[in-house]
Structure formats: structure tokens, C-alpha cells
Amino acid sequence: MDTYSQVAGPSNGNLTSKSGIAPEIVMNGVHEPTLEELERELPYVGDGQIHLGELVSRTVQTIYAELTELAETMPNMSDANRKRTLAEWVVKTKKQVVKLYAVVRWARDAGVVQKAMNVTAFLMDQNAQFEEAINRLKSAKDGLDPARMRNHDLLTSLDVLTTGSYRRLPTIIKQWIVPPDPLTDEEVANTLAEVEHAMRYRLRMIDVIPLEMSKYRISDGRSFFTAPHLFEASLCVRGAKKDDGWFFVDVEFLFTIGGDVTSMQDFPRKPVGPVKRHIADEADARLAFYLPVPENLNPPPGVEIPSPRKLPEGVIDAPLVRVFNFLQMMSMSYQLEILWFQAERLRSLGWADYLKVEMTNHRRTLTLSYWIRKPPPSNQRVNIPRLGGTLTISIVKSETSSSPVSKAHPPHRSAKAQVLAELQERSKLGERKRPSDTVEHLRFEVKWEPQRVALGMSIPFEAVTLPEGELRVDPDNLDVESLLRKVLFRHSVAILSTYQQQLQHATHTIAFAYPTAVKLISDDVSTHLRVHLCADEVVVVSIDMRTGRLGIRDTGDLAASGRAPRFQTITEYLNINPPLLADFLLRLRLNTITDLAEQKAEYLGLQCYRQRNIPQEDLQRFGPTAKGYLFIQLSMFSANYLVLVITDLEFRYALIEVKRQEGKVIDTLGIEDLGWIDVRRMRSGRTQMELNQAPLSRKRKAEDANDEEIIPEPGSPASFKLESQVLRELYAYCCARVAYTKVEHQLKSHSIPSSYVKPAAAGGLPPGLGRLQSSLINAIPALCVKSSDLLAGAEGVEAAMPNIRIIPLHWWADQRMEYQVVTCVKLKYVQQPLGKRAGNSSVIRPSKRIIYDANEAVVSFLSEDVDKCVNEFLEEWAKVSKMVVIAREVAQMASEKNWGDVRLLSFDLQTVEFAYAPDYSVSITCGNHLFLDGPYELYFSRPRVGNEQSRYNPHTEVEPFMRNILRHGSLGPSLHRLVSLLRETLPIVLVLQEIQDKAEQSNDNVDTFAKSAEWFRVLYGDFKHALDFRLMKGSRVLVLDASHSLFPAAEDAKSKDSKPINGLLVLHPIPDFSQLVSETLKDLASQKTIGTVHPVDTGLICDGSAVTLIGKALYERVLQKLKQVLVGESSSSS
């Protein structure tokens, strides 16, 4: 122990040299194993443990999948929901990462824990061995108790004690006790040579050798017989005499164990120990079956020697044939036992619940029953076999060559071999002799009996038929697992092929009829069905060759881990009723297609529903091929939905309008209108538009790529590959359809016919709206209305070209925009905008709802509500058309009426401003009313002079009367009359303005006002007298006493009906008015500017040019006269 301590030192026992190699430890001359060698001998225990890498991988996959889902869903959330969702995810993920970190830290000590578990298992194994040794010792004790020694030989003992020698013992005792002198090497070699010569003579001349082991060699005093793929046995003869037989020496079985090589130590090729003794005893018994019993044999008392067996006459002993038959059976039984052991080992490795191993009592037949199923529940009606099939391996006699057999054991000798065997027998036995035994031709028979309705599917017979010789026991590779897997593989391929035929040729659906929809993928190891559901979604249907259970899994990427529970649930239900695989795949396909479409819709921020409370009779309007639906609600039109109808072949797209049904207990939506959308036609229109707009260098490439359209061939799995761009365009197209439909309904409510024209024929959007483009705008027909129908009864209908375009806008937008419809009217005659509001551009926007392109003479009317766009257009057109007519008429007045001072000052479709006299102008606009005869608004003004403010236009006082002129009759003549009145009444309003100004300066209480567009009055301060100015034909003016009427009947009625009010009449005649008129005319007679004046009873008639002088003069005289009368009345009353 001191030596060992010095070598080991104070370390923990891990002895290493400087070179890193553990030194050899020798203690008391015995090699002591190192610690590393001892650790390698420890058994490995991995029960209840998993790899750290797998745990990290699954955690990372889950985090990645959740991040991907958040990236797709969070853009559609509000800011508060987005922050809350992200915070919750961070907290949850942090907990998982902390747990994973703790596991990783703990895993640093995993090696120590593993070593401790291995040591524990080793100690438990040692404890089991100790208990077994105790049990063996107890059994030995119990077995030795009844043993007894024989009585002592006292006589012989006394002779030896007294004389020192044996007197009564036989001499042979000495020979037994005293060893003979050992032979020399030369004597041994000579003896072996003689033995070999005797064996060679017997084999060539006497003994019949089976052809199956006719390959032999003689060496070292033994004969080595080799039976290919069976055994190699060594025999030796007892002597050179005729009756000296053969005896067994050794045997080696010629086989190789395949599969798990660890089992080779349990089945050595060379038997040893009790097995070898048993084989030797049995072989020697067969070799000496007909040998005579030795004469000097003294059996123990009570033991009777059996009589020797005698051969029949003409029969020669054939010991080698008997030993061949025995060793052949031993070899094949040994191989069958190995196969049975391998099968039992498979059961211990997880096959126990699904594999049943049976061996017959005579140990010649091994039966393997695979795919064992548990008894079904009592309520299950599906009758599925309890097992998938059986594989039987039997040792049988080879009589025919019709069955597949092992290559090592042919069913019969060939003709050549048979002739050789007969020649051998004749040459060694004679003509009329026959051997005592014949060769038994044994072989392995492998029979596969599959259940043709396994998993509930009826499989054709040819599908489960293997080629001849495919199933055989190969001694060079004894592996029952490979045989079983070959059968299971073939059975799985047959079942999956049947499923493939069922899916591709199903009568109730054509969803998987496309050639590449269902593929059977098979290699040397596994087989599975690759089912293309839709787009890039593929599922794999496989059969677990161990359990016989169907499995469905996804072939998606890292983010597909979230779908694992769904596939697990489907797999569980599928294995309860396997014949419903097609139904499960159809349901999974429908759910997958719906999930993908819903994901695209949510990514675009669209509101979608898988179900709406729509009656079944309404859903039948989608057709019998509809399998599922996805309802996408249009944000701008809540009563309309884009419906993705899922059929067996492709998506079908429908646009519906729903209405809530009254009188229902449950809120139910009824389909009011339904229209189908041809997405290929829509996409082709968009592609053609892009092709037309592309440069010439790109057109050829675009034409070549046109065949590879996003919309694939119907029926192919890729037909459900819904691109986000396609869905966005479909949604926009539906919004456009709804917008156009609403416009059409409005036109129909006004009994206005409309038609659709090609987008190219309708032209593009008006200037200023070019940025409001969509890729589909040229794929949607434009709405065209005849101007004679739409503008019937409106002013300025003759100003519009025959066709009017109505174009809904912003149907491609995600939210409601300011403008939704534009109506374009091209004018026949063009009046260029004038004034400051017109600007320098050819496109002006006089209001937020009107855009005017002067170059194209197109007026565009914008509407904010698609439901009221027609009424809004008519309202705006009523205004614009009147302004257009007014501008046109004013522009023509200078030449047609010779009114040189009438000129257009400003025009912007909303307002027309023109000068009707030098230094006097008026602007005309329309009021905000829809009626065609709605009010006009007139604003009279005068140009500025210098820095002064705008000067006052006296026509402002008559604005209410002037604007009414435009409301009566046609606009053109009314406008002419208005301008004419303005020009003719200008002197009157000017003189009234001067009178008013002078009265204010002199503090005279005088009021001037208009009674109508042609009637003006000067009311004096006593409110009893007034002076009227009336416009007459020919631009003449009548100035008269206001107390008198121009109509006698009205004057008489007035005088009769007039009653004093507070003792006063309403108006009194002006005192001496006729005299005042005469005096005024006499004073002005010398002035030539007064023109022609005609006095009348109550006034005078003069030209409009003279009304200024006459009016002011007459006003002054009347004013002085009224003051004199007032003074006289005051003096008389005093």
C-alpha cells in the first residue's frame, strides 16, 4: 500500500503522466484499472433527460413565431393597445428566458449529475449480482444436503497401512492413476498422419457425404466439413477399424448478426460451455447410432445396457448424413432464436404496444403481428382490424420451389447435384445398397399476410404483393427489424397509394384532382404523402411504421410552431377513424385557405369575418361549389361586403349588399344584391394599362411576363395563392363598383339613362386630381351620361358637350376622403377666366368643389358624398352654367348692342364681374340653392382711384329689384334687360345720390329710395310730399308729383279709399307743382343739354341725359316752395 500511495500521490485518483496518458498502476503484481477505465465501464443512464440544444431551439422558435405574429398584427392596433401588447409580451418572454438561463446555468453541472446517475446504476447492478450470488449459494447448499459418501473400504485401507501397497486393487487402477509417458512430437505427428489417412480413406471410399457439406478439408487430425451459410463442423474418427465410428470435435455456425451489433455477444458463432457439451453429446449420439456396444463395458449396478440397433438388410450406415441433418436443424433453429431475440428486443425499445411476438412450442415458427391497436370504445361504429398484418418465419422442409426461400437453402438439388449424389452412393455402397439416412432439405419460409383493410382502407391485392425472393432470411445479415421494416414499408406505401387514389379520384370533391396536388414521396427509408393544400402550404401525411398510426405534420418554416397543436388534434381524431382522411384534409385545406386569406386581409387593415348571420337560402346563391366564405366589409360602405368564395378549384369573388331583416328574433342579414367579379379580366385590364404606360424598352419584357400572371391556373394548388396586391385591388374594385352603383341609382331615381364606356375612351382624371390615381382606374369602365338627359330643364344646357363623365374617387383609399365623386363637363364654347382669381395657370379652382381646365374647356364638379353626388352636381351646374351664360352674353354685348363701355372684368365660373358703364361695374353670383330659378346676388361697385377706398355705386340701393330681373324668363334676355336698365337708370340714381348728399349737407330731412327697378322717389321731410322719377321707353324719364298716379283708375280708387291717418293723408299734392315745373323749364331753357322736354299735367318727360339738371333744379324749387308753405302755415296758426 505504501508503494501505491507514493505513485498515486495526494490527487483524487486521476493519474496522468506529463504526456497526458494515464500511467499503468500495478499493485502486488496485479494491474489496477485507472479511474478513466472504471468510468468507461459505468452504464449510461439517460432516462428522463432531454438535450439542452433541443430546449433552446424550441424556446427560440416560439419567441420568433410570437414576434412574427406581433409584427403582422400590431400595425392595425391603436397606440395604447400596441404598447400594452408589447409590454405583456416582453414580460412573458423575459420569464421564459430567465427560466432558460437558469436551466443553462444548471446544465454546467450536468456532467457531474450524469456521472452520479451512472454510478448509482452501477451500484444497483452490483447489488443485483450480490443478491443473485446469495441465491445461487443457497441453491447449492440445498442441493448438497441429500448427497452422501459411500462406505469406506476398510480392508484396502489396512493393507496400505500395514504393507504400504495395494493388494486387492486391479492393475488398471495404476494405469488410471499413474500418468503414462507423454508422446514425443514425432509420435504425435505420425499418429495424426495415420488418423488423417484413415479419415481420408473413409471419406473417399466408405462414408456417404451429403453434397451440402461436400466441401471439406483434413488437417490437424480432424476433418472440417463446411455447409455454406449453415455451419463448419470438425469431426474425427475413433480408429481405423471398420466399426470405429466418428466423434464430434467442434462446430462454428456460419451466420452474421445484423442490426444492433451489441447482441452479437449473446449469440457466439462458436458454442461454448453447456451449449457445446449438449451439441457434442447429441452429435456423438447420432454418429454412434448404429455402432456396436463395446464388449468390456461394465455398467453400474441397476443400469441396463440397451441392445444395439441393427440396420436392415441392404442398408448401410450414413453417420455423416445424420450429423448434417442435426447440425442443419441446430443452425437454422439458432438463427430463428436470434430473430426471436431481436424481435423481443424491439418490443423493449418502444414496440411493445404495437408489436406482438409469438413462437410455437416446437420453436420452428416465429410470428410477428404488427400495428396492434387497442380495443375501440364501445360507442365507436368504425370496424378497423385490431392488427395491420402478420409476418411469419418458419423452418419447413423444402419440397417445392414455388415459394420464396433463402439463398442458403435451395428447395431441391439441381439435376447435376442429384446425379452426383447417386453416383456417390453407388460407388460407395454398391448397386443394391442404400444409406440408412437421407438428407433433410430444410429452408426458411417467410410469409407476409397483411390485412387488406388495415386503417379502414381496402388495398388491392397487387399493392401488397412483394416480388419473389424479396422476403428471405439472409444468414449473412440476420436482422428481423430489416425484414419487418421492409414489410411495413411496403404496407405503408400500399395504404398511402390507396389514399392518393382516393384523394385524386374522389367523387364528392375535385380539390386534389390536380396532378401535383398529391404526391407519394418514397425512398429506401420512409414514405409519405405530400399534399399541397394551397399556395405554399404543404402537409405531409405519413404512417408511423412502428405504431401504424397516421400522422399529419406541416412542412412550414420556423414560424409554423404555433400550428403544432392543431395538427396534433387532427392526428388524434384521424387515428380514431382513419378512413376519413380525405374529409380531414378537405377541412384542413379549407381552414388553411381561410387563415391565409384572413391574414392577408388583416395585414391590409381590412375588417373581415368568417361567418355572417345570413340565411342558408341566401348562401345558396353563391352556388353549389362553395365550400367556405370570408366576408370583407367595405369600410366606406358598411352594407357591402367583398366575399371570397372558396371552391374546390380556386377563389371566386363576389360583391354583395346586405340588409337587416325586420321581424327576426336574431339579427339576420339578407342578401339584397350579388354580383360576381372576374379577377382575371380586372387584372388583365390593369396589366394592359401598365404595358401601355411602360417605355418601349420594357414592353417586350412585360409582354413575355404577361403569361406568368399572378392569377394561376384554376385547380392548381397555387390558385389559392392570394397576393396582397390582388386583394387590395379587389377591395378597391368593389368599392368602385359600389360607388358606381350608388351613382346609377341616383340617376335612375331622376329617370336619367346612363351607359358605361371604356376607360381609354372616357379619358383620365381632370387636372389637379392626377395624383389620385389607382392601378385599377383604367380597368374600371367609366360612367357616361348624355348632357341632354342630365341637364334637362337647366340653364346653359346648350353650353355642355353631349357626353358627361361621372367618376367616383378615392374608392381605393383605406378611409373616407374629402371628395368621392367628380363629374366632368366639357363646354362647347370657351370663355377664358379673367381677373385676379383666375390667376396665370390654365387650371383654376374657384371653389373647393369646382376645377376648371381652360385648355380643355372641362369643368370638374367634386362631390363629398357619393349618395348625393347627382343632386350636388345639378346644384353646382345650375350656378356654373348661369355664370358661363352671363359671361358669354356680356362678352358679346359690346359688339351686338354697340355698348362699347360694357366689358367683362372678371370671370371664374362662380362670379362674373363686368362694367355696364364707364366707372361702374357689377358682379353676379348665384345663391346656395338647388332650384334652377334660385336667387342671384348682385354686388355693385366702382373702381378705386388712387389710394382711396372703393367708391359707392348708387345702384346698390336697387340691388333687390335688379336681381329679380334675372329670375324671370331666359337668362340671356333677362341679362340684356338688366344691363339695359342699369345703363338707363344710371342718371336717375346719380341725381338721387346728389340730392341725398346735398340734403345731408344742408341738414334737410329728405329721403331718396327706389320703389322698383324703374321707379325712384324723393320724399321730403314733412313726409306728405314726394317727387317720383320713372323710367319710360326710349330711355326717357318721367318726373312727376308722387301723390298722383299714372293710372286714372288706380288714382280714383286711391282717392276714395284714402282715409286720414291722424288727420293727415298719406301723400299730398305738391303746391303749385305745375307752376314750379314751368319755372324750372324756363330757367333751364337757355341750356342746350336738357334736350327735349315735354310738360304734362303733374310733371314732365325728359331724356335720360337731362334728368340730372332737371331733377336737381325741380327738387330745389319744390323744396323752397314747401318751406314757404310751412312758414305761412306757422304764421297763420300763431
UniProtKB/TrEMBL annotation:
Pfam families: Med14. The keyword Cytoplasm does not apply. Residues 49-238 form the Mediator complex subunit MED14 N-terminal domain. Keywords: Activator, Nucleus, Transcription, Transcription regulation. Residues 695-714 are annotated as: Disordered. It is found in: Nucleus. The keyword Transcription applies. It comes from the Eukaryota. Component of the Mediator complex, a coactivator involved in the regulated transcription of nearly all RNA polymerase II-dependent genes. Mediator functions as a bridge to convey information from gene-specific regulatory proteins to the basal RNA polymerase II transcription machinery. Mediator is recruited to promoters by direct interactions with regulatory proteins and serves as a scaffold for the assembly of a functional preinitiation complex with RNA polymerase II and the general transcription factors. Component of the Mediator complex. Belongs to the Mediator complex subunit 14 family. This is Mediator of RNA polymerase II transcription subunit 14.
